[in-house]
Amino acid sequence: MAKYRELAQKFIGDIRAGRLAAGDRLLSLRQFARQQGVSLSTAVSCYAELESLGWLEARPKAGFFVAPRRATTQGPEWAPFESRLATPVVPYRHPATLSGPLGTSRLSLEEASRAALERSFRRALRAAGERLDRYPAPQGEAALREALAGHFGQCGFAMDADELVIGHGCMDAVKTALEVCTRPGDAVAISSPCYNGLLEVLAQLSLRIVEIPSLDDGIDLAQLEHHLRLGTVQAGLFCTTHMNPQGITMSVAQKRRLAQLANRYRVPVIEDDVYLELAHHPHVPLPAAYHDEGGFVIWCGSLSKTLSPSYRLGWCRPGRYFRPYVQRALGVPTLMQLALADFIDSGAYARHLRRTRDRLARHKPLYLDYLVRHLPEGCRISQPDGGLVLWLQVPGLDGDALGRAAERAGLDIRTGALFTASDRYRDCLRINIGFPFEEPVQRELQALCGLIGKMSAPA
């Protein structure tokens, strides 16, 4: 056996025996060559062999690491069903005392980004001058709108700063868009399952819903068109990239057709794109709004998921609904807008996103590996290419009972019934993967898998 393969097999043995764990950093090539008394070319061949077999991963400017064991579970099943009119109910709210890492979809803000934000706020305060003596402009500060337009323009989604309206987060943008283009009693097409926060807003506005089935590459657009043709629905509301909770991203063809349907039937489609920039790879997909030619796609986004939920700052590109939309805008604190404009213009936001994508790409396989090893056989887990959540399907699980047991145990999770107005997804749950795979997360996952194991065990 060649020397490099002999060394690779030794590494694999150490990993299988637990002497090396997923995520452990390995020696540099030169250090490894000196340690083993081999040439640099042999060291390179050894690491290349390990990488090709999936035991090692190279991270740019970081080094070499033991790769997470790859999950071998299947993804969730998306059973077909016929879409019908329904009335959303306000989902159950978890107690405020439950705030563990698995519940709410969110990131932990790393120190480098926190420090850069502090610098941006100091610069913004010095530059604000007399603007702090005035109420904020309803449409938002030009500096922030220009920063956002430039940022998304670099991603291939060109827009004019005057097309944007700054608001209090993505949910505020979605709610305002619904108020502009619907009336109480109207029906709104949504994906199934659908983020529970959107269901809550729809219920608050006395709107009815039509749940459109999920597919592996998006949603059942044939059923959506059927309802558009019949006039059953007066608007659409969809998360199109890294959907919450199912993790699906609409294909380019699906996004293009969604925009075409909105224009053909002249029905507004609100695009909740809060996860757009949280891919688990360097490539950022384009939204459905990119394909919109008539202004019928109302594009909503936010920094709440990519940066911090505490800022409650988002934006909307209302398209042909711009005038009534901006008339409802009240303005966002000026200093907050100027600071975040500085954060974007300085390049700190782009650096933060690169680090965040890398972190999520490293977190996800660790979560998946743990779940595959500790959940009952037959469980299905989504394997999204972006976003902050995993969708779990456990055959025979009573999700309501799991929710009650988890609450008694102080465990923060979201069960499948929260994401629908139907009886579907009772055997499903959603967990957040935005936090590093460290002791607090592992402790909660252990407790969750223990509860599921007990509830799934034969009587």
Automatic annotation (TrEMBL):
SUPFAM superfamilies: PLP-dependent transferases, Winged helix' DNA-binding domain. In the C-terminal section; belongs to the class-I pyridoxal-phosphate-dependent aminotransferase family. It comes from the Bacteria. Pfam families: Aminotran_1_2, GntR. This is Transcriptional regulator. GO terms for molecular function: DNA binding; DNA-binding transcription factor activity; pyridoxal phosphate binding. Gene3D superfamilies: Type I PLP-dependent aspartate aminotransferase-like (Major domain) (3.40.640.10), Winged helix-like DNA-binding domain superfamily/Winged helix DNA-binding domain (1.10.10.10). PROSITE patterns: HTH_GNTR. Signal peptide: none annotated. Keywords: DNA-binding, Pyridoxal phosphate, Transcription, Transcription regulation. Residues 1-69 form the HTH gntR-type domain. It comes from Zobellella denitrificans.
